[in-house]
Amino acid sequence: MIPEKNPPSRARILLRRFLGFLAVLGPGQMVMMADTDVGSVITAAQSGARWGYALLPLQLLLVPILFVVQELTVRLGIFTGKGHGELIRERYGAFWGWVSVGGLTIAIAGAMVSEFSGVAGVGELLGISRATSLTLAVGFLLVVVWAGSYRRVERIAMALGAFELAFLWVAVKAHPTTSLAAALPDTPWHSAGFRYLAAANIGAVIMPWMIFFQQSAVVDKRLQSQHLRAARWDTALGSVVTQIIMIAVLVTTAATLGADHRRVSLTSVGEIAQALIPYLGQETGRLVFGLGILGAGFVAIIVTSLAAAWGIGEMTGYKHSLENRIREAPWFYGVYTMAVVGAAVLVARVPNLIALNIAIEVMNALLLPLVLGFLVLLAARMLPEEHRLRGARLWMVAATCAITSGVGLWCALSSIL
Q1: What is the CATH number of the domain that holds 279?
Q2: How far is 256 from 261, CA to CA, in rounded Å?
Q3: In a domain, 56, yes or no
Q4: Per the confidence metrics, is the pTM higher than 0.90?
Q5: Has residue 194 been placed in a domain?
Q6: In a 3-state reduction of DSSP, which class is residue 128?
Q7: Alpha-carbon dihedral of residues 190, 192, 197, 199, nearest 10 degrees?
Q8: Which of 155, 203, 264, 266 could cross-link 361 (Cys pair, CB 3.0–4.6 Å)?
Q9: Between the CA of residue 94 and those of 87, 99, 339, 358, what are the distances in Å?
Q10: What is the distance between the alpha carbons of residues 409 and 413, in angstroms, rounded to a whole number?
Q11: 131-179: per-residue pLDDT in tens?
């Protein structure tokens, strides 16, 4: 073999790898930005306001668990070329496929209500009527998906999600003083209220629709085996960023509303905004909070409603890709539209309650055994032999998912019953 006359320099090789990573970047970032949705922000804010820094260790612990779970969806999407619901139907039959999609639908219905309640709350905070803010949001969200390919929708969603980084600025401005070491000895597991919020935090980080969305997004983006490494980094980066945002919100409210162990219970989105205003000023505080909530809400609405359209499409067999035009995949776009419009109409007619958003995250925790159970089974049986979960890795992942599901169930049920 004749050697190259001018072999590429190390800098050029690194540049190629970086550009390759940027090309793959997307599904992991989108799903993680959506993970820090309005319900998650509210849950983190309530956690800080009610219990100070006591739930901070749980948020840190959930970082690697979130990556382990979502990395399996990347592998399944890349090496099977099929969505999550489609694989369950293929392996375990239509009944279990519909059971999984049923759980997905329940989780998405709750999530959509959370997102639009946040949009309405920000509108009211800025002096805009609920009807106006919801109508504008619905129009924007329909145009984004109706007129876009997968890559275009991905870029818009990531740009919207970037507004969530505003919460990091707020956390720095709040000047938190309590350390993690100081929070650990005071963890009040004996309290039913604390366990309820712990379950909500678990459900706010690991959500059923995330698994369906990322696996289908990987398929729709047509990622192949050579993209696995970059896709795993995409997911790892997203796992860290989303939890940093959650921690920033918790730290901010712990340093303000949760100071001196006052154990404040929030009742509206406006009360969360009030935690930020002393540090940023009235106008800046409302603007920064509003952008953060709107970014979180919009990207989560896009992700959850697309997860519903993909999941139901995988079970019914109708065309389910953003690469199809509306006339080619009317049911796919119809499900997306019905999800967006239906949730907005519901929120327009019901109060904006913090308690509702937190209850939805607790419901996610109750669904974890079903969702994570199917995920581990598929990774152990449907992947090619060289990428299949087996041996020590299988037991480690299974144990991680079982413990996470078990803790979520225990926290939820013991605080409710």
Answers
A1: 1.20.1740.10
A2: 10
A3: yes
A4: no
A5: no
A6: coil
A7: 90
A8: 203
A9: 10, 9, 23, 32
A10: 6
A11: 899 999 999 889 888 876 777 787 887 788 777 777 787 777 766 665 5
